[in-house]
Design goal:
repressor; six-stranded mixed β-sheet; 2 domains; alpha+beta; Jelly Rolls; Arc Repressor Mutant, subunit A; 12 strands; HTH_AraC; six-stranded antiparallel β-sheet; 38% helix
């Protein structure tokens, strides 16, 4: 059972804090944590130093691996679900304080940016040192490469049902025909619905989920063999081929590029 998230101090008012950037560290308990759907004026960067966090907005689902963060523009309704024992950082940024995307996206976090976030989270006052940390963070953040690590979803209840089931069991290989039967649609109708709502075919949609899960698990120390088995691939070679075809690099090289904020 997930527990509601509690900030390190009571009555924390995100939008009431006067600063271009504020960082908050939250250590999650052994039971995992959930932040219900909400929104605020400030934009938010969701960064997991260890374990992972899943962010959901009306149009998509992000499973944030370590070394990456999700950027959520101000005014966007969202919810966060953290795994047990995760160490999270929420960075709240004033509108216009940095040149950041107008839509939700996954951003690589360089070692320098990681240390800036951690250092800013340890400050509780407004000394000049805090302002300098915030300025450096806001200058570095827009330089980070954007990663295509999200699963497009919609509020359409039948697709939400399928998305929730696949997120809970990524190894599920149920075909389009069987899913169509479960949600009381013809196979062709479900195929058209998936494309209309997500912009992807059903197979590509499920593959995108596999990529997100794979990167999250690899970032947390799982081996390629373990991830391949978890996702239900018949062989490690088949998994590596899929990964390289989709992202241009085999898992180890891709993960190394994300960890170092490589734009190539």
């Amino acid at each position: 059972m997930r527990q509601p998230l509690h900030y390190p101090w009571p009555d924390f008012d995100v939008d009431g804090a006067v600063a271009p950037a504020i960082a908050v560290r939250v250590d999650v308990s052994e039971t995992g944590t959930e932040v219900a759907a909400h929104q605020h004026r400030k934009g938010q960067l969701v960064f997991a130093l260890t374990e992972g966090v899943t962010c959901r907005v009306p149009s998509g689902l992000w499973m944030v691996p370590t070394h990456c963060a999700v950027w959520i523009p101000g005014g966007t309704e969202h919810s966060n679900i953290a795994t047990a024992n995760a160490k999270l950082f929420f960075v709240y940024i004033e509108a216009g304080a940095a040149d950041l995307p107008a839509r939700c996206c996954t951003i690589s976090i360089s070692p320098l940016l990681r240390e800036l976030i951690v250092a800013l989270s340890e400050r509780s006052d407004t000394h000049d040192a805090d302002a300098l940390l915030a300025r450096l963070l806001l200058a570095e953040l827009p330089r980070m490469p954007v990663q295509q690590l999200y699963l497009p979803i919609s509020s359409e209840p039948r697709l939400r049902r399928i998305a929730d089931a696949l997120a809970a069991n990524p190894a599920d290989r149920t075909g389009l025909s069987a899913w169509a039967s479960r949600v009381a649609l013809s196979e062709s109708s479900l195929s058209r619905l998936v494309i209309k709502e997500t912009g992807l075919s059903f197979g590509r949609w499920r593959q995108q989920l596999h990529l997100i899960v794979a990167i999250r698990e690899l970032s947390n120390g799982a081996t390629v063999q373990q991830v391949s088995a978890e996702l239900g691939y018949e062989s490690v070679a088949a998994f590596i081929t899929m990964f390289k075809k989709a992202l241009g690099k085999p898992p180890a090289k891709y993960l190394a590029s994300v960890m170092h904020g490589d734009r190539t």
